[in-house]
């Protein structure tokens, strides 16, 4: 792992890799949802459904908002995020139950650049990839003119929380978790963590 890490914008060709990293970011939770999606019929892997989701540009969670970290042509991690408007729109009324607390917290991040997904492949964790991607998020925040950074993590994800806290993030709100469909609980609360501009 001595090759330098390079950062590049994602392309449509990265859709499957992005879906895999989104599933890693959610500890397999979103993949469970994809597995039970009606579109999964006739597929061999939930990532096939995830790939379709990453190609769908009707919401913010898509390939255009992703940045890939690579080393020697190997994808090692990903940042997926976007600037939130200063005033959030109406709260969605068609959410799956497990998403409600997550979206409630995202709705509190108006005016921030929102880190929707940050994931690093297991062999590369602890090698600075996450910190590099958080630095990139700060650059994107500045370019967008957002007031700060925001992200959501689980209360039990201690390693990630320690990284975020080292980078200046603080817990600003929480919501009780609701289980992923057909998935086990991974903690008690979702945490909204924010880093205001003056810290960066």
From TrEMBL:
Keyword Ribonucleoprotein: no
Domain of life: Bacteria
One example GO MF annotation: acyltransferase activity, transferring groups other than amino-acyl groups
Domain N-acetyltransferase: from-to ranges: 5-198
InterPro entries, sorted: Acyl_CoA_acyltransferase (IPR016181), Bact_Acetyltransf (IPR050832), GNAT_dom (IPR000182)
Keyword field contains Transferase: yes
PROSITE patterns xref list: GNAT
Pfam families: Acetyltransf_1 (PF00583)
Annotated PANTHER family: AMINOALKYLPHOSPHONATE N-ACETYLTRANSFERASE-RELATED-RELATED
Organism (species): Devosia insulae DS-56
Bilayer-crossing regions: none
Protein name, entry field: N-acetyltransferase domain-containing protein
Keywords from the named record: Acyltransferase, Transferase
């Amino acid at each position: 792992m001595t090759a330098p890490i390079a950062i590049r914008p994602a392309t449509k060709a990265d859709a499957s890799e992005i879906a895999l990293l989104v599933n890693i970011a959610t500890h397999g939770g979103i993949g469970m949802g994809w597995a039970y999606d009606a579109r999964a019929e006739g597929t061999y892997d939930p990532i096939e459904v995830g790939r379709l989701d990453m190609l769908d540009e009707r919401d913010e969670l898509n390939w255009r908002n992703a940045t890939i970290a690579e080393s020697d042509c190997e994808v090692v991690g990903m940042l997926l995020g976007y600037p939130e408007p200063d005033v959030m729109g109406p709260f969605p009324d068609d959410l799956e139950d497990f998403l409600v607390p997550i979206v409630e917290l995202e709705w509190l991040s108006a005016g921030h650049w929102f880190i929707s997904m940050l994931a690093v492949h297991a062999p590369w964790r602890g090698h600075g990839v996450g910190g590099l991607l958080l630095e990139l998020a700060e650059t994107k925040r500045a370019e967008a003119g957002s007031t700060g950074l925001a992200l959501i993590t689980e209360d039990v994800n201690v390693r990630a929380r320690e990284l975020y806290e080292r980078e200046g993030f603080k817990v600003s709100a929480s919501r009780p978790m609701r289980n992923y469909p057909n998935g086990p609980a991974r903690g008690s609360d979702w945490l909204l963590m924010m880093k205001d501009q003056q810290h960066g």
